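A.,

Following up on our hallway conversation. Structure tokens first:
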């Protein structure tokens, strides 16, 4: 019996040597140590042994079971470690390899201008309002005191959907929407796309951006208008940029003015960019016409206001020395990639 036991042990250990997976180890365990495994089978014959031999064989069998179980546990540990090693090896990353570059989008220069302008006016206490690009003729023209025969109403200047609906030609209709919705005091800005049936060239695009501003309250004067816009010019273009108010005419403001600032390129000397005059027009403004206030249900005896509207494309072009408005709408990556953070 002793020989048989030793034989089993020998076979078990040499089989264990060959084993490669935890599944095979388990198979081996069942084969040798399981309920009907080799060891048990042998021990069934214990009854035929002599009294003296029985405990000795029992001891040997116990020893064998213990050492075989231990060997199985060790083997499993070893296999697990080897598996882990293989995994680490397979999933190894060489961090010294050059990375794959991810193409990054950049903020469009017009968007940068819009964000900065909004910041400037929010700091001055303005709130941001919105209005639709598809507007009523009433909001875009009538309520803004635009004469029925004003040339800007013509089909050659304005995109109409039908006689009462159009693509807004400026952001001024947001003034109307705001005044109809809010009681004074009002201090709002609005940014958005506008559309005019214009030529397309270096300075004109049928779609462009404007920012509108409106302040309505008691005792608002032309001095407030000038102070606000001069502060805005200083913040956006720097301390030494000069601004000039030039009388102008808009149906919805009275008096009206246009504001020119010193040319960013020649600083007032006169150059190709400013057409030799040293100044560039950046916005239209004025005191809100009493008729416009009344149309919106605001008492023009009690309240006054000022408004301004500026072309953001032109401002963007000036800030980044872009000499053709079409670059802003072409979506040419070579152009856009130049505007890093
Ligand atoms: N809406 C005018 C334009 O498009 C600008 C403007 C706005 C003028 C507000 C005065 C007051 O040219």
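Then the amino acids I'd put at each of the 341 positions:
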């Amino acid at each position: 019996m002793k020989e048989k036991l030793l034989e089993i042990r020998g076979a078990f250990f040499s089989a264990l040597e060959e084993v490669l997976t935890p599944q095979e180890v388990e198979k081996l365990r069942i084969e040798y140590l399981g309920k009907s495994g080799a060891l048990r089978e042998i021990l069934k014959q214990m009854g035929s042994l002599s009294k003296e031999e029985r405990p000795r064989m029992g001891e040997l069998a116990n020893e064998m079971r213990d050492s075989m179980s231990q060997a199985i546990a060790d083997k499993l540990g070893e296999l697990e470690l080897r598996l882990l090693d293989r995994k680490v090896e397979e999933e190894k990353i060489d961090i010294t390899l050059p990375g794959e570059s991810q193409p990054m989008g950049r903020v469009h220069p017009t968007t940068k201008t819009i964000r900065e302008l909004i910041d400037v006016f929010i700091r001055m206490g303005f709130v941001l309002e919105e209005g639709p690009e598809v507007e009523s003729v009433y909001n875009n023209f009538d309520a803004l005191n635009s004469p029925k025969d004003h040339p800007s109403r013509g089909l050659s200047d304005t995109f109409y959907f039908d006689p009462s609906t159009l693509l807004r030609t400026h952001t001024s209709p947001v003034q109307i929407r705001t005044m109809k919705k809010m009681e004074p005091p009002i201090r709002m800005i609005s940014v958005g796309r506008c559309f005019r049936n214009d030529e397309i060239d270096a300075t004109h695009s049928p779609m462009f951006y404007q920012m509108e501003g409106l302040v309505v309250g008691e005792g608002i004067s032309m001095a407030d208008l000038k102070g606000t816009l001069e502060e805005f010019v200083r913040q956006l273009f720097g301390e030494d940029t000069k601004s000039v108010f030039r009388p102008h005419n808009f149906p919805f403001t009275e008096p009206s003015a246009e504001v020119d600032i010193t040319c960013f390129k020649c600083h007032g000397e006169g150059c190709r960019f400013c057409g030799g005059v040293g100044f560039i027009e950046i916005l239209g403004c004025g005191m809100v016409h009493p008729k416009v206030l009344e149309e919106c249900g605001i008492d023009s005896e009690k309240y006054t206001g000022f408004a301004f509207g500026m072309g953001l494309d032109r401002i963007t072009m000036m800030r980044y020395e872009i000499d053709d408005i079409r670059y802003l709408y072409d979506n040419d990556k070579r152009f856009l990639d130049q505007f890093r953070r």
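Residues 2-90 form one domain. Curious whether your intuition agrees with the design.

B.
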